[in-house]
Write a structure and sequence with these properties.
Length: 564
């Protein structure tokens, strides 16, 4: 307490005293400025004449003995914790030290004060002497903790598709070369030029979504919730395991290209009658973020939660972003992927207006034919795919089965055309992904291509792959869309599931309907009508979307010996 009282007083006294001495440092003749006299009078009123401070061969009365006695040992302690810096003249003075015996030694000076002649005022006289009183700060070096880099692994998968509603049945159908494309049955499309799609039939939410929500939610949200919970089940996230999770480090990032189109379309139809007929949930259930939000509410997960919408590249954007949350330590567990359901009149009609869809209505199973000369557009699909991504040590601690390791990826923008790909955009994205993941070109021997069965897109992607990987004799490329159609925002996630399954099983699925390949296509690289055995080193999965959005992500087998 004494120290706290003395420090401000002592600082003021020094400033007042040095105000007098400043003129002595500037004017060697020994004049006393008016400011100096006022300061001295203030000191005298506080207790009379006292000690002597010396600067530039001039002495003057500065401190009171009573002040020194008042401060006592507190001033003695003050000298050890404060740093004093005097004016340069002090260091060349032959007089006794300023703070040696004069104040802190309580030897209050031995030389008398002489009367000084009045001299003309010197510029700068009366200004306070530059004595800094600052606490001495100890410099401490912060030691950086050396930690192992965080790694991301896949420990669970969930799928809802036209070829199956779990990862194993879905991939078994792909390996068998089955097509999930059929005639649309959910509405009357007899007046449309395209009447086929990869439509999901016989889907049920029983046991996955509460009935009160299943009656009101859009299909894209029902697919999302079901696939997300199936990924947890597949990943061994039992009730006991879920109870032990740090919910603040568990997040959900599942996107959608088009969101709740059916809910919104129904609201427009209701509005034609009256706004009172509109579903009160029409706005929240139409937004793309609400699926992730509803799943988080169900699970109680409080980590990163949002959605990304980048057209048909949505899922890859979500998967890479979710993995980055884990790498940065913001999450330990992330559900990521995509979901879409646009096989409704407005969705079908919209893509027909874009002249994007195949019209091979008489042979639905042959409509999606990537790299084939006779392709006439893509086939719409619907569904959801979700990966359970987990930090490696977290997965090992709970004894999870690790399906594959996520190595990294990249996304870029062509800034070129609304629907046409840039000639160099795809190769730039792939090369960026390899650089970000630290993967050599020759190590990538499997590519799950975007390959939608469009005239321009298929060839542009193939040329980009040859530019980057053309020297790799082991390279194999296939297209999942040849069997399930284009799932729009969910395409990348469903194809990521197929990619991880290829790593797990050692089998890569066929690409059906490539009966008459383009002349630029090397069928030794494209996986044809039969599945093939392949020991995958690194797998690449591409997704591209309207607006020039490109994305590439990389997976590899998890090898425990590479932990260090």
């Amino acid at each position: 307490m004494a120290m706290a009282m003395v420090a401000p007083l002592y600082t003021w006294l020094l400033a007042a005293a040095c105000s007098y001495g400043a003129s002595s440092c500037e004017n060697r003749s020994g004049s006393a400025s008016p400011m100096g006299r006022r300061a001295r009078r203030r000191l005298q009123r506080m207790g009379g004449a006292g000690s002597t401070l010396i600067c530039s061969k001039q002495s003057y009365t500065s401190m009171l003995p009573d002040v020194a006695s008042f401060c006592g040992s507190s001033l003695q302690g003050l000298s050890s914790c404060l740093s004093f810096e005097a004016c340069p003249e002090y260091y060349s003075s032959k007089q006794s030290p300023l703070f040696g015996e004069g104040i802190f030694g309580l030897g209050l000076g031995s030389r008398p004060v002489r009367a000084a002649r009045r001299q003309p005022k010197v510029a700068g006289a009366g200004k306070a002497l530059a004595i800094a009183i600052q606490p001495v700060r100890e410099k401490t070096e912060k030691k950086k903790l050396i930690t192992k880099p965080r790694r991301v692994v896949v420990t669970g998968m969930g799928v809802v598709s036209s070829l199956g509603h779990d990862a194993d049945s879905f991939y078994s159908s792909l390996l068998a070369g089955r097509s999930g494309v059929s005639v649309i049955e959910s509405f009357d499309c007899s007046e449309f030029p395209t009447r086929i799609a990869g439509e999901i039939k016989g889907f049920s939410t029983d046991g996955w979504v509460a009935p009160k929500f299943s009656r009101r939610m859009d299909k894209f949200m029902l697919y999302l919730l079901t696939a997300g919970k199936k990924a947890l089940e597949d990943g061994g996230m039992s009730a006991d395991v879920m109870g032990d999770l740090d919910k603040s480090k568990c997040g959900i990032l599942i996107g959608s290209a088009l969101g709740g189109m059916k809910v919104f379309n129904d609201a427009i139809e209701a509005l034609r009658v009256s706004y009172r007929k509109m579903n009160p949930f029409c706005v929240p259930f139409a937004t793309t973020n609400m699926g992730s939000a509803m799943l988080a509410m169900d699970l109680g997960w409080m980590g990163p939660n949002y959605s990304i919408s980048t057209a048909c590249a949505t899922s890859n954007f979500c998967i890479l972003s979710a993995a980055n949350h884990i790498l940065r330590g913001e999450a330990d567990v992330m559900l990521s992927g995509g979901s879409d359901s646009a096989i409704i009149p407005i969705g079908l009609g919209g893509f027909i207006a874009c002249r994007s869809l195949s019209q091979r209505n008489n042979a639905p199973h042959k409509a999606s034919r990537p790299w084939d000369v006779d392709r006439d557009g893509f086939v719409m699909g619907e569904g959801a795919g979700v990966l359970l991504l987990e930090e490696l040590e977290h997965a090992k601690d709970r004894g999870a089965t690790i399906y594959a390791e996520f190595l990294g990826g990249s996304f870029t923008c062509d800034a070129y055309h609304m629907t046409e790909p840039h000639p160099e955009g795809i190769s730039l994205c792939i090369e960026n992904a390899l650089a970000q993941a630290g993967v050599r070109k020759e190590d990538v021997n499997y590519v799950n291509a975007h390959a939608t069965s469009t005239r321009a897109g298929d060839l542009q992607e193939y040329k980009a792959l040859m530019k980057v990987f053309g020297q790799n004799p082991e390279l194999k490329v296939n297209s999942t869309k040849s069997m399930i159609g284009h799932l729009l925002g969910a395409a990348g996630a469903v194809e990521a599931v197929a990619t991880v399954q290829a790593i797990r099983t050692g089998w890569i699925h066929p690409t059906i309907n490539v009966d008459n390949p383009e002349k630029e296509i090397d069928m030794n690289i494209i996986v044809g009508a039969q599945k093939e055995r392949l020991d995958i080193k690194v797998a690449l999965s591409n997704s591209f979307g309207f607006g020039g959005h490109n994305s590439s992500i990389l997976f590899s087998p998890y090898v425990e010996s590479n932990d260090n």
